[in-house]
Amino acid sequence: MPSKPAIGVSAAAAVVVANMIGTGVFTSLGYQVIDIQSPLAVLALWIIGGLVALCGALVYAELGARMPRSGGEYHMLSRIYHPVIGFLAGFISIAVGFAAPVAAAAIAMSSYLTSVLGLNTHGPWMTSIAVIAVMAVTFIHLFPLRTIGLFQILVTTLKVILVLLFILFGFALATPQPISFAYSPAVVPEILSSEFAVSLVYVMYAYSGWNAAIYIASEIHEPRRNLPIALIGGTSAVMLLYTLLNAVFLYSAPISEMAGQTEVGYIAARHIFGETAGVAMSLLIAFGLISTISAMTWAGPRVLQTMGEDYAIFAAFQRANRNGVPYLALLFQFVVVCYLILSSSFEAILIYIGFTLSLSVFLTVIGLFIVRARDQQRPQHYLTWGYPWTPLIFLIITGWMLVFLLWEKPIESIVGLATVLSGLLLYAWNSHLNSRMTRRVAAALTD
Description:
This protein is mainly α. The protein has one domain: Amino acid/polyamine transporter I (Up-down Bundle). The chain has helices at 9-20, 23-27, 29-35, 39-66, 73-80, 83-97, 99-116, 124-140, 145-173, 187-191, 194-207, 223-252, 255-258, 264-273, 275-288, 290-310, 327-343, 346-374, 389-408, 410-446. α1 (9-20) packs parallel to α12 and α5 (73-80) packs antiparallel against α6 (83-97). The mean pLDDT is 84. It is found in: Membrane. It is a multi-pass membrane protein.
């Protein structure tokens, strides 16, 4: 860790935007339209998901202003509830919170590249491209913090420009599909259905990252002021872009052609630009996912580093190179990402991430009520707008989504719960090591 925070609000906001605009928005629509037929209901998914993410960002902005330290939910839940709750949240972040989204982004990037290049999407090219991409980004993140920040701003800016061009040319050039975004009575039952709730998991996965800046809070200049700006500004911008981008997908490409497909961006690009230009645009989409891989490669190891400062079993991961980068934590995440790339399917990773991470975020948002009741001191720079309604909206919709997900996708959800519970074994092991060390110290003092 550097002795002095080195990045400003622009780099922090870039981390938020890059974490959000990634795999989900270019891939998840294909799974949504299998069960949801109304275009308006599909857009409602993205609007509701964006509002939920914004409510979460509003809450996290206050919690981050109160507790400005890297580590995300690990640090906040340890302070709000008990160290064991924070430990479990940190374990989730280490196990799946960042490694799995990096793997999913790398798989999606490889899927786009292999599709447009005419390669076998289920062959060795698929995994090789994904692993090489993650390896290259991991190497860049061994450089000084300012270099990492500039790289993040550059790749994120290029991706946002790409999305804006896609939206602009999509509405201007595409032949409209025979669909309507107008309201009809059939929309309400679809929105209240279990299929909508499960699809909201994919949408919330696409919005995941709205809290990304909280994981690198210690590296942000004046975090009490800049952290809320990065979280709220980045989330609001992405919500607008997501809604327009999915409207373009539905407007330009047949729903039947996108249903069940991962490369919905590629399908839409072919209909908007034609075969040749569509291939070029799809290549740009693939390379645009580098910013997502980069943002999560930046944030994830900081959780492990912060835990290494607090727990003996993770002590090695607090070590930093001469640039202040936690290199062992970075390399550990790289190994986990490669394992997931080689062993997991894209859809299974999405469900697994969605359920497991939502548990941590749900508890964190509840924590705002506890913190306000316990601590009468208010942050100087920011208080949650719309309190208590904003955290309540987030909790109601996220809780509803979790219940339906557990019902509709029990295997992935149970695996997620098992991951959480397995963290208790590590916590018990750490407590055992601490007890042994305490006894040895006591015995040495006695002698």
